[in-house]
Amino acid sequence: MDGKSDSYKEKAMERKNVSFFDKYYMFILGVFFFSLILLLIGFLSDGANLNESQDLKIKDFNEKWFFSYDDTETVIKDILPQKQHVHRGDYYQITNIVPADIDDQTVLVIHTTRQSGNIYIDGEKIFELKNNSKDIFRSYPVNKTYYVPLKKEYANKKIMIEIQSYSIVYSGRINEMYYGKLQDCIETNYMKQAILSILYFFIICVGVVLAIIYLLIRKKKKLHIEIMLLGVIIILFGMWIANEYNLFQNYIKKDTYVNILTILSKFLLPHCYSAYLLLRLKISVVRRIIKGWIIGIGISQVLICIFVLFDINNLIFWMEMYTIGVLLIFICSLILIIVEICLENEYSIIGMYLALHVLLLTILIEIFSFYQNITSYRNFGIFIGVGMICCSCIMGVVSTNKIIHVVEESNQIREELLKKRIDLMMGQIRPHFIYNTLNSIQALIEIDPEKASDLVYNFSKYMRFHVDTIEKEGLISFGEELENIKTYLNIELVRFSKIHVVYDVKVEKFLVPMLSVQPIVENSVKHGVSKKKTGGTIWIRTRETDHAYCIEIEDNGVGFCMSQEGKRQLSDQTMSQSVGMKNITYRLNQMINATVLIKSKVDEGTLVTIGIPKKEIVFDENNYS
Known about the structure:
Blueprint: H1 2-48, E1 59-60, E2 66-69, E3 72-75, E4 82-83, E5 91-97, E6 106-112, E7 116-121, E8 124-129, E9 144-149, E10 158-164, E11 173-174, E12 177-181, H2 182-216, H3 225-244, H4 255-280, H5 284-309, H6 315-344, H7 350-372, H8 382-428, H9 431-447, H10 449-471, E13 475-477, H11 478-495, E14 499-505, E15 511-513, H12 518-527, E16 536-544, E17 548-555, E18 568-569, H13 573-576, H14 581-592, E19 595-601, E20 605-613
Parallel strand pairs: 14-16
Antiparallel strand pairs: 1-12, 2-3, 2-5, 4-11, 5-10, 6-9, 6-12, 7-8, 7-10, 13-15, 16-17, 17-20, 18-19, 19-20
Helix pairs in contact: 1-7, 1-8, 2-3, 2-8, 3-4, 3-8, 4-5, 5-6, 6-7, 7-8, 8-10, 9-10, 10-11, 11-12
């Protein structure tokens, strides 16, 4: 007794430990990733403050600038980058003296953020910060790095950079500048953007890998579509930030292509993200919020297209308003979702929202760093990129945990189906059936040897089919099941001569589980027409519709009393008393998503209808063999 008690306690403790892990593992992960984000932010912030002009080949040009706007000139006291107050669409100028140590191989590196303009030396235009996009994007220039060629004769002369931007965010922004030999400047620019470029290249690769994993899944793609959506979300997010900051400027040469990719990713991302949430969420209120979000975003996208086509304001204004609106909706929706989870105690999906919390935190840090000039232009997007990786890792752990539970559940279902199949086979081959058949064979041997021989053949065929159900798994054609039904009826008709069978089979080429229809026919014989003194008729019919295959087993036997609705599913307690009926219903539903309904009236008979949806097999035992 003590041994059993100890064993019970050990199992209870094990279940408690598992339950603790399932409930709190996401909080442990959250603490880990939050700590990781803080470390990365601290590292990157320190790295941003390094004096990168220590390399003697490259020299900074970020001090002693004058800012001119609206007929007023002021000194920029701090080093670049800086943000000045300028109305969008207005021109502003910055001036300085060209360094004395330049020569004919020197270039000045200028970074623009949604800006265009011109560069002058002593009033003479020497370079244009040009927007090379099509007309529709004329007010939506890409972020770009320009290498402005200088000459030795420009030394100690006045340089003026005239800048214009239609952006609310970027108008008045002055990015850092440096100069040196062309090759050295290119290498320096690569090194400055290396972390961000590698980060978003990695993010896009993660999304591509997830999409490929989904494509490689051969079965049950609908059950794993969230993997594909997650991959697409990550790809679109990576494309958005990479093109927003033109990280791949050296690979995508045309500004128009960069703008198109940016707008497409911005437009598609919220829809894919919403679809992913709808797949994961089951709470009705939250689902309604997300559906409203989708409609609102779709309407705003259509309006943007209309405004741009009719030249109402300009594209950059509407895109910034759209981005701000999407961000606000995302934050509000996330808050509502979290409140809903707390109210409904839906802690099973807390992992996904922990990941969204991490992403939201990094978005807020990104916005703060952008507007407060904590980092230079080249580090914009690095915080949200780190957040995206952490978010993807958390969701990956959640999905992996979910897959493990699904596999365990599938194994349990397989074992249960195997047990039910064996129970069904053993239940079908009952001793009294064997005795009655052998007695019939014995009686026929002397009276009608030929008929006795046929009965022996049918009986052996019947036994072989039932024994094969243990060895075989999966589905068979209805034609094979029908052969077994005919074999069984040929045996029973020897004993019940007043029973008639009518076959109206219009279609046989569809799949059913083994021994799924024959027990229903046997039920009609045993509990229907055989109990009627005058005998009766059994009708076996099949037909095909646009969406399903239909099997009907009808008899005009004694019938039985049903509920007031006159219709009841076959798995109800009333019918579970029949041989194997409960098991048959379970197998039909689990393996081919079939519905089984019955109608019956006392002294009139019974009708059993099996509906099998086309191309809707949701379980196949072969998957687990």
